[in-house]
Design goal:
single chain; about 300 residues; alpha+beta; ph1033 like fold; seven-stranded mixed beta sheet; two-stranded antiparallel ribbon
Amino acid sequence: MSFFWVNLGTSYKEVAKYQFLWAPAYTLKEDGSKAVDAGWKHVPDVNKGDVIFCHEDGRVIYIAVAKTDAFRSERPDNRAYDQWKKDGYKIEVYLEVLDVPISTTDFKETLIRLYNHRCSPKLFDVNKRATQNYMVSIPEGAGAFLLNEVGEVSLTIQEKIASAQSSKGKKKITEREAIVKSRVGQGKFREEVLGLWGQACPLTGVDLPELIIASHILPWQLSNDDERLDKFNGFPLSPSIDKLFDKGYISFSNEGYMLINRQIPQEVIKALGIDSTVRLDGLHEENLPYLKKNREIFGF
């Protein structure tokens, strides 16, 4: 599963009505040669099950899940904007229209700090405004972060992703409830994670259950159903450490040493009263593949 961001202009109503995205394959230079705009080059890369955040006028207004791989298609007749060439790529999508659009001001500082340099092309310009590129490829960590921002809607999105990627039947109600609860560190997942680590945060020693958060190592949004319930895909963390870990500000080496994202000043860690030299002792062999993926996702 890959993640993309689309900047919709006047076509945003058409996208909602007809449930597809389209962009030209190329433009023509003055000498007649073809050129691919930076904002179009990733459209052919979209595959079935990929997630696309649709932005319009400073807000994320839709979340799309690709029903098809991108395929060559002439500009649809219902596409009002006719200044582009007719040859292009089309993506059929399932579209979730957000009842309450999310303003970019709610999250752009985090995206700029942690992920903008890893977007292709960059998502925000030097003035912290969304660029005018049609489509931007964004890293997994940014995709997981944005899905968390939409709250319960992400559960519907995950169902559509699973439907697009697999022909397997739906989970039993009891299984689905356990998976849903694991999203917020509750239920079976929480019980088993705390049990594995002696009911305490391995970094701070805090052992008050109400202050412990069962945090996924491989983010819930990027895990499959088995991984979402796997006790080895979790750490019981104190709130401040959980927040840093969940957002990708910190991670851990295979030896348990804290790794701090280069984009985060050391002073922030100190201001939170966290000892960056502390070691996460007691790692299990089964934790390591999840930690490896966590480091890859968040750029450590």
